[in-house]
Design brief:
Length: 380
């Protein structure tokens, strides 16, 4: 009598596919849903703002592309290609290889930042990379990067995504975007730091990346551990994503003939909801000061509680002071604010958005890259 197979309704553990699907969906969600990303819901209640901007719904969609297992094995190397709208009808793209990590309370590895003999917090996440069956995934991603550079595209547009959530229960109870808990590390930065440390990441061996849960300056790569402290720009990819959203947003507002002062301040509220920060501590809002005190007071209470609850949540999630993790969000808000203040034109942004991690798509084409395998077609 044959043994019946167990019916599964959920994964046993938090796997790479689950993490990847959620993160890319969150990235796409920044651009795809006018009902939820055009205005904050609370302002709908206050000001009766229309939920859909009919003239600008087209050309808003982000697209997600994935290789089949055979294509990935035979030279693809990446998990997801994401294309996002720029607001002027064109698109940007980026290639990301995601990895799932495992929690560690510390290790006994010589020279590791997370050695149990070190007094700093040792709890961290450990990720394996170049761990496919042929141990050539990092090389395959390098081939893609070289091809992109040869076409005049940025070297940082090939990334690893390392989500710092490792437990299935924590994931199920996550109260905010997984995107905010993901380290994006470019292949170019990893290779440059490895070269300086005298480490070969193309030796056909599995390697590991380790990072602190809440302090991304405490991270390393091993075989022989070397620090990745003083990162080039831990939030660089997210910065470019948000600015791309701002570019699209500004284009929409320009088409609707909505003034820059109002639209810029509304975008900052949208950003505050995403980051869960209190914007009134970071910026003087002039446009909304024209409204009755009761409405302003309600809005201030809302964001004050939003930030407080976020800090408490992060403290529970990481078993550490939540404001330590939250501080980078305020710095990130200030960084976006500085960019907005320096671009005061009413017209849409076309060339001002950085292009270090995402690249403007050329005409649809296929790249043939010579790697070991039966074929490797990368359409972008």
């Amino acid at each position: 009598m044959s043994k019946s197979k167990k019916i599964r309704t959920s994964p046993v553990s938090l796997n790479e596919s689950t993490l990847e699907s959620n993160i890319v969906s969150e990235i796409a969600g920044l651009f795809n849903f006018p009902n939820t990303s055009a205005y904050t819901s609370r302002l709908h209640w206050f000001f009766d703002i229309p939920r859909v901007i009919p003239a600008t719904i087209n050309f808003r969609k982000a697209k997600i592309y994935r290789l089949t297992p055979i294509e990935e094995y035979d030279g693809g190397g990446w998990d997801s290609k994401i294309t996002i709208p720029r607001g002027d009808g064109s698109r940007r793209a980026v290639f990301i290889q995601f990895k799932s990590g495992k929690h560690s309370d510390g290790n006994n590895i010589t020279n590791s930042l997370f050695n149990l003999n070190v007094k700093e917090p040792n709890k961290h996440v450990e990720f394996a990379f170049n761990d496919n069956s042929d141990n050539n995934q990092h090389r395959t991603l390098k081939n893609l990067q070289v091809e992109l550079i040869g076409r005049g595209l940025p070297s940082k547009s090939v990334l690893y995504g390392f989500p710092r959530i490792t437990d299935l229960n924590e994931f199920e109870n996550l109260e905010e975007d997984l995107l905010l808990h993901t380290t994006f590390l470019s292949l170019s930065e990893m290779d440059a730091k490895a070269k300086n440390a005298g480490t070969d990441l193309y030796d056909g061996q599995k390697h590991h990346f380790r990072t602190c849960y809440f302090d991304e300056t405490r991270r390393e790569i091993s075989s022989e551990p070397f620090s990745l402290s003083e990162p080039e720009d831990p939030s660089g990819f997210l910065f470019e994503l948000v600015l791309s959203k701002y570019s699209e947003w500004k284009s929409q507002m320009y088409k609707e003939r909505i003034g820059r002062e109002w639209s810029d301040e509304e975008f900052l509220f949208l950003l505050s909801d995403f980051l869960r920060v209190n914007p009134f501590e970071l910026h003087e809002f002039r446009y909304f000061n024209r409204y009755p005190f009761r409405l302003k007071d309600e809005l201030k209470k809302y964001y004050l509680n939003l930030e407080k609850n976020s800090i408490k949540y992060l403290g529970r999630l990481y078993d550490h002071e939540g404001d330590v993790h939250h501080k980078w969000r305020k710095r990130f808000f200030q960084r976006i604010l500085t960019f907005i203040k320096s671009h005061t034109s009413e017209k849409p942004l076309q060339y001002e958005i950085p292009s270090e991690y995402t690249f403007v798509l050329p005409e649809e084409t296929q790249l043939e890259i010579d790697v070991k395998g039966r074929f490797n077609l990368i359409t972008f």
